[in-house]
Amino acid sequence: MTELPEFAPQSAESLPIWLVRPGDDGPALPAEAGEMAKIWAKAQGFSGRAGQLCLLPTPDGKIAGAVYGIGSAERAFRDRYVLAKAAEALPAGDWHIAQMPEDMDGETAALGWLLAQYRFARYKKAEPPAARLVCPQGVDGDRVIALAAGEYLARDLINTPASDMGPDELERAACELAERHGASVSITKGEALLAQDFPMIHAVGRAAAQEPRLIDLVFPGSGPQLTLVGKGVCFDTGGLDIKPPSSMAIMKKDMGGAANVLGLAETLARLGLTRNMRLRVLIPAVENAISANAFRPGDILTSRKGLTVEVNNTDAEGRLVLADALALADEERPELLISMATLTGAARVALGPDLPPFFCDDDVIAAAIQNSGRDCADPVWRMPFWEPYESMIEPAIADLDNAPGGGFAGAITAALFLRRFTDKARHYVHFDIYGWQPTAAPGRPKGGAGQGMRAILNALPEILS
């Protein structure tokens, strides 16, 4: 795992950075910065727009501090990690926030700084920014580092190519997480999947060089049960319905659901929250490959739940492996069952790569998750389990269709398919994430991305109370 960043220690030698918004009469520079700072900033054209940095000199030419623009309050949500750009632009040294607007969330600001330090350097050396931040007053530094740890883990897992992150390596990563936090692990793989009644996980992964498997983590704790299920398709060729090269290029990210639930589990465990719940994490880990024994279009599979599924597209494999894992999770009747998957292109067309949809039947839980996501700069958007579309996933010769034709409502029909396997859990929520940052942004480098983890985390006290 990429080494986690640290906050700088409290020190009289750290340099001040003032966070400033623009105003009608120019940026509101604080009096503590001094009159010369105001003159200097004005001469440099500093206006307080988001991401604008102005270093302040001492009389002898050294750095006295900096003023940094965070933009207007109206566009605060648009500039998600506004302080992240400062982390990358400031010169080496320790910095402390000397002024922060009252309406700015210190935890999100500090997290943005830490996320800006992330560099995936497994295959190519890449040095993180050298500026360090003293944890802002009133912010729980250990909590912010726990949030960053979950995001770093998810990014690392997604960024690692399938040559080094197949089902074997994903299992190893899950086992390492379990060892760090005292969780138990059980693995069902290969032909044992058939013997223990996970036929669809076996069917999807049987053509690959590495055996398909179900990874099952149980954390010690007591209280309401939270079960997380993450899609772990370590590479997706599309199977016999093979993808074109342009669509296969970043399919190492098709285990992004697994990466995100592991990242969330990492944060929950670091925060000690697993002591007050029964946390279980299930990951069906496979590679959707092509071989003589690959499953075929037109095959009928019988799921763990007993529902039969007609395979009309082998490239809609994620919902098949999730279905068996969800059926297992559902048997325990958890208080909250959450699935996360890089599941449908339809979701990306509807909402783009940056705003993952989630599906939930309970209005109170849905509002808690969506409001939490907005408050902690982890945006998500509720979509409906639209029951009139149920007929679209009901083919003529089986109970369910894994890929209904027509091209309409692809994200909704996928969610409806998964919901068929979750009738015992008290509440079920499904996230259709992208798991990838297509272009770099402050605090969010191009590549693997966590989505929905903090939105879930901050909503859990309300949901599980």
TrEMBL record:
<feature type="domain" description="Cytosol aminopeptidase">
    <location>
        <begin position="313"/>
        <end position="320"/>
    </location>
</feature>
<dbReference type="Pfam" id="PF21337">
    <property type="entry name" value="Peptidase_M17_N_1"/>
</dbReference>
<keyword id="KW-0645">Protease</keyword>
<dbReference type="InterPro" id="IPR000819">
    <property type="entry name" value="Peptidase_M17_C"/>
</dbReference>
<keyword id="KW-0378">Hydrolase</keyword>
<comment type="similarity">
    <text>Belongs to the peptidase M17 family.</text>
</comment>
<keyword id="KW-0031">Aminopeptidase</keyword>
<dbReference type="InterPro" id="IPR043472">
    <property type="entry name" value="Macro_dom-like"/>
</dbReference>
<dbReference type="GO" id="GO:0004177">
    <property type="term" value="F:aminopeptidase activity"/>
</dbReference>
<keyword id="KW-0464">Manganese</keyword>
<protein>
    <submittedName>
        <fullName>Leucyl aminopeptidase family protein</fullName>
    </submittedName>
</protein>
<dbReference type="InterPro" id="IPR048816">
    <property type="entry name" value="Peptidase_M17_N_1"/>
</dbReference>
<dbReference type="Pfam" id="PF00883">
    <property type="entry name" value="Peptidase_M17"/>
</dbReference>
<dbReference type="InterPro" id="IPR011356">
    <property type="entry name" value="Leucine_aapep/pepB"/>
</dbReference>
